[in-house]
């Protein structure tokens, strides 16, 4: 079945697969969001491990079901550990997810992303519109780690990155674009409050990695993980909360409560649109 034809039962099956598989997901991420990343992995049903030092990173990747590399911070030794964990994952045939946080904002981050992309194979790359545009070599406006500006051609840009890397690409924004060499889809799910919480991009990459650790198809993992993430964001906005701080807590609760049975009762409607 095409990912554009999925219904609530398909998404429910993926959510159940994560909770039943309990994939060990290794994160080499930044300290700003490390707790949120670990907890969200756990709330989806995965098992988080944050082994990010050289030696330990490669050894832990021997047991993991997926590896997520986040370049939000790149202190001495972290990049080497990322390469080590990524090589081990590639050798074992388990998915590696790249979150190129802030690429396009400084030459140092650009160099780290280039080194990882040149030496490792990625099942998925998740970035905001600006980051994905920067990877494609087109004009992007990235200030710090935030994407600003207009990205009218983001669908084609995401396809370009997918074709050049062989990865499934998730460009996150008001609408999320998921693209691979065969095509692209637009996902309509989420809530504006997600943009008021630092680290939701990192948490989305963690979600895609967690789904990737349980599902065989990387494109299905990217589409279903991104869609489930957005739906949880909407459900959190319906819970009792009074601002970004309480919304952050509500979002984690919403992820934990988004079980297969809950998803099966949802009306997905026109949330997935195939693009040219």
From TrEMBL:
GO terms for molecular function: ATP binding; hydroxyethylthiazole kinase activity; magnesium ion binding. Pathway: Cofactor biosynthesis; thiamine diphosphate biosynthesis; 4-methyl-5-(2-phosphoethyl)-thiazole from 5-(2-hydroxyethyl)-4-methylthiazole: step 1/1. It comes from the Archaea. Substrate binds at residues 50, 199. It catalyses: 5-(2-hydroxyethyl)-4-methylthiazole + ATP = 4-methyl-5-(2-phosphooxyethyl)-thiazole + ADP + H(+). ATP binds at residues 126, 172. The keyword Metal-binding applies. SUPFAM superfamilies: Ribokinase-like. Its cofactor is Mg(2+). Its EC number is 2.7.1.50. Belongs to the Thz kinase family. Catalyzes the phosphorylation of the hydroxyl group of 4-methyl-5-beta-hydroxyethylthiazole (THZ). This is Hydroxyethylthiazole kinase. It comes from Natrinema altunense. The lineage of its organism: Archaea, Methanobacteriati, Methanobacteriota, Stenosarchaea group, Halobacteria.
